[in-house]
Each structure stands twice: as C-alpha cells, then as structure tokens.
Amino acid sequence: MTSNTAAPAADDALVIGLVSISDRASGGVYQDLGLPALQDWLARALSTPYRVETRLIADERAQIEATLTELADTARCHLILTTGGTGPARRDVTPEATLAVGTKQMPGFGEQMRQISLHFVPTAILSRQTAVIRESAGHAALILNLPGQPKAIAETLGGLKDGDGRQIVGGIFAAVPYCIDLIGGPYMETDPAVSLTFRPKSALRGTA
C-alpha cells in the first residue's frame, strides 16, 4: 500500500487511486506492470496537479471491494482506475466488486473500451470492464475498470490515432474530467496531444 505524490499536495488537489488486481503479481510471482503503465500514462496526460494512491492486491472480491471503498471514502480519491480481473475466468471478479461498491452505474465507459479493443482482437467481447460512481457524504468518486495489458491501458484511455495523428476512435479519458466536474471533484486539465478533454462550452474555465 503506497502513496505517491506527482505534484505538491493541496487540500483541494486531485487524488487518483490506482489498483492493480493480480494473484501472481501481488504474490511476487512476477513484476506488476499495471501500476507503472497507469502512472506513466497519467504523467503524460494530466497537466493538473494530482496525488496518487497505489494498491497491488489479489483477485479476491472482498479485498477488491474493501480497497475500492477505502480509496473512495478514506483516501478521498476523485478517480479510481483498476487494471486486471475483468475477463470471464472464475478468478476474474473485478466488475462484480466494482458494481457492489457503486451507487450509480456508468456503462458507457465499458462499451467504449470494448469498441477500441475490437479494432485489434475479436476476443474484446469477452472483456467485462465497467464503471461506477461511488457516493458518500460530501464526496464522490468515479471508478473505472481497465484492461490488464499496458498497451491496452494506453489505447483505451487515449484512443486510437492514424499515422498522421488524427483520432480514429476516442479514448474514454476524454470524458473523465467533465464527469469529475459533475460529481463535485476538482477541475482536471489534460495535454491535448495525449488526451483531448471534452466539455460543453458552459463548463469551460478561462474562456470569455
């Protein structure tokens, strides 16, 4: 259980929870690749100061639920990204744990992730990624299930571009900052070269 600071902390700073879910990585059988992939992508994408809380845990539903609850309610994360445990295997229980702790389902995120992955493999339809909002007194967090492979993590967050840099398929992170706005979190800004945030004009800051 670790806490990493990517920028100076502030009372109203953006807090992001990162959870890698893997029996073998958490047991030391092999090195975890999920957390480094998430941290690398966020470092490139976010221009807003933020703090990161990281957790590496096993594919145990009770532990996943407890970790997500702790990150949302105690660590006060505004955004929680999980990686791993979203397939059809018996040990893959991340979506069930995520749905159990959520107060609102956000199925569009999972639908878009599968659309992105289908550009590469037909087995993308076996992925069960989902998203929820967890609400508590005075706070809310968006929880997103991501794929387990670093390449797929970057593709689903940032989308797909052609050789000239034109967006072919939009990544899910484009909608994340506005979602965080709507649930009362800090105003997030991104590097448009990595992830171009969309907000309605009425929600933009610093424009006349």
Considering the chains and any ligands shown, give keywords for the structure.
alpha/beta, 7 helices, 208 residues, single chain, seven-stranded mixed beta sheet, two-stranded antiparallel sheet
SS field, number of helical segments? 7
Q: Which class of secondary structure composition applies to the elements?
A: alpha/beta
Listing every helix as H and every strand as E from the N terminus to the C terminus, the arrangement reads: EEHHEHEHEHEEHEEH
Helix content, binned percent: 25-40%
Average pLDDT metric: 91
Query: Mind describing the biggest β-sheet?
Result: 7 strands, mixed
- Radius of gyration over C-alpha positions, nearest whole angstrom: 16 Å
Q: How many runs of DSSP E, i.e. beta strands?
A: 9
The poorly predicted ranges are: 3-10
Quote the distance from N terminus to C terminus.
44 Å
Range of strand content: 15-25%
Q: Within the largest sheet, what's the order of strands?
A: 1-3-2-4-7-6-5
Globally, the shape reads globular
Tell me what you see in this structure.
- 31% of the residues lie in helices and 23% in strands.
- The strands form two sheets. The chain has a seven-stranded mixed β-sheet with strand order 1-3-2-4-7-6-5, sandwiched between helices.
- β6 and β7 (139-146) form a beta hairpin.
- It starts with a strand and ends in a 26-residue tail after the last helix.
- The model is unreliable at 3-10 (pLDDT under 50).
- With 208 residues, it is of the alpha/beta class.
- It is built from seven helices and nine strands.
- The longest helix is centred in the N-terminal third of the chain and has 14 residues, at 61-74.
